[in-house]
Amino acid sequence: MQKPGQNIEFALKETSPKIGAGAVTGDKLSNTYDLVEQMHYLYVRVMKAKELPGKDVTGSCDPYVEVKLGNYRGMTKHFEKKSNPEWKQVFAFSKERIQASILEVVVKDKDVVLDDLIGRIMFDLNEIPKRVPPDSPLAPQWYRLEDRHGRKVKGELMLAVWMGTQADEAFSDAWHSDAATVGPEGVANIRSKVYLSPKLWYVRVNVIEAQDLIPHDKTKFPEVYVKAMLGNQTLRTRISQTKTLNPMWNEDLMFVVAEPFEEPLILAVEDRVAPNKDETLGRCAIPLQNVQRRLDHRPLNSRWFNLEKHIMVEGEKKEIKFASRIHLRIFLEGGYHVLDESTHYSSDLRPTAKQLWRPSIGLLEVGIISAHGLMPMKTKDGKGTTDAYCVAKYGQKWIRTRTIVDSFTPKWNEQYTWEVFDTCTVITFGAFDNGHIPGGSGKDLRIGKVRIRLSTLEADRIYTHSYPLLVFHPSGIKKTGEIQLAVRFTCLSLINMLHMYSQPLLPKMHYIHPLSVLQLDSLRHQAMNIVSARLNRAEPPLRKEIVEYMLDVDSHMWSMRRSKANFFRIMNVLSGLIAVGKWFDQICNWRNPITTILIHVLFIILVLYPELILPTIFLYLFLIGIWNFRWRPRHPPHMDTRLSHADAVHPDELDEEFDTFPTSRSSEIVRMRYDRLRSIGGRVQTVIGDLATQGERFLSLLSWRDPRATTLFVLFCLIAAIVLYVTPFQVVALLAGIYVLRHPRFRHKLPSVPLNLFRRLPARSDSLL
To answer: Which domain holds residue 419?
Structure first.
């Protein structure tokens, strides 16, 4: 799995975890959680208590429950003056860390100085029943409380105690002994959670015209434009070319909006009365709940909306309703896919409208098993520590594993499933350090990211690999650990999956009514902001820095390293053509006479039997494909440091990549980088100029810009037409091929006559200033 020239430390490693898939365990867990290792837990569900005796002077009690197992203890919240409290809380103790044989459940009365014991219940761990889903949940029972000497006392506690696994329904909501150091207020920030991205729509506002506007300055015709606002998005039309009181625009404005629609679309007609001064001639607010939804390219009916205007009367705003109105065609576009992530790593390509979705073609199952070798991300009590959790994003579904507190080798063993509608999509995993628990920095730090493209996976095969977690720092590339994943793609319909390869990548509307590149970039930025804002409002929140990292918000920013990487990717693509050109040059120069003679024979056969040309080409491609099947990739692709030019990047280029936008560096550094960009731009400019020169020389063959060259070319075309008309094509092809493949003895090093003529043709570079 190590690529040539790549550091073995950054390589992908195949692993053999003890997962349930393929194992005969006789356990029902193997059918549901078969991509993760089984983790056994002792669960304690504390439901409620009744008839608790009063311990205070007033005869009341402030009860809470403490669950103790060896050195681990979990506590419920306490209630003020309540003898029949309800907690409905679950505690989970990892069996790996259990060192005691007795479980103690204690009911206490909260006091200022020392909490009083109300009663307790003891359980022998050897007698606790085992439960594995899909068995029904264990019914809670009433237990009579006992004092320290084992005597029954007043009060009862309803409990359920069982041994289970992470497949248990109570697992995600439980207090975990792994996070014993996290107080009750921090538990919500460490639980696993499934999130859904908001449903995004494009809003198209076709501004047609306005009527009966009343400008403030009646002495001149207004210079009117329309300003549209939706949330934080603001767009404007051009100033109308019809300088009348009935201006026309017929312009489209595009916005992104998420369900549920929280804010109306506000349109304001404004008059440019001075270079930096605009006056509002009227405005209207349109609730998006009432807007029509369009599923295809057929036009919808337009509508007139009245414009309202406010004036100041004695310091108060008063609304004036007048006949000024605006003509709009406004609708929600359901036929587009709202791009909210980088197009190179899209995880979903479906249109917004659900009725346009095709049936799913498969299931993606992922087991997030563990991580190891994590680096300390923060310092707590004088020592380095990491509180790691993992986030995965595919389609509209985001998942977040629970946080494993203070561990460099966290074990999550959580399994999740996604429906797959297109294999040409990417699932993204990110590992983070939780900074929102006691002692945290208040910001979740990046540990690393992994992407897996589904089309590179074989159906029904389980991939178990350890992926390197790599992060760029101002000091260079760093490996922050490894994450172990188990991935399985299950195909539900082979025919539907293969048919998908013949379909357009994006919904039809992207091709029938395409959006411009600038529009798409702006809309993608707005969509990312909306998604991050909505997920940041969830509980626990999926914070902005996490969402932006997962969606690659900064992928469009300039980076010298990425530019080099893309340049060498192009050179790698062209290397095949260059290799064929070198091979053909060796054939023409008779470096290997036997090969050249065989090529002569093959060429003569193809000229004499031209109907064999296409079958020969396709047969050759087929044989190459079959030959390469033996060395097909058996492992999913991963982050390649060599391809990314991350292993030998210059410190200044790294500093530039981490610079803010706009820049925060000193003027000397900015000047140096600007000069460097100018030099690179100069080289690019020269190459583009050379390409333009060659194209203009080709066009000047018949333009008579050089009358002598055009005369020669026109005469050559006439003679060639006559010769080719009377000579069979096969003879011409045979003679041309033999001339090209002639022996070096019949060649000379000077350029050919056609090339000499071409290089002497004029180009428009002479006219450049």
So the answer is: 354-494+509-551
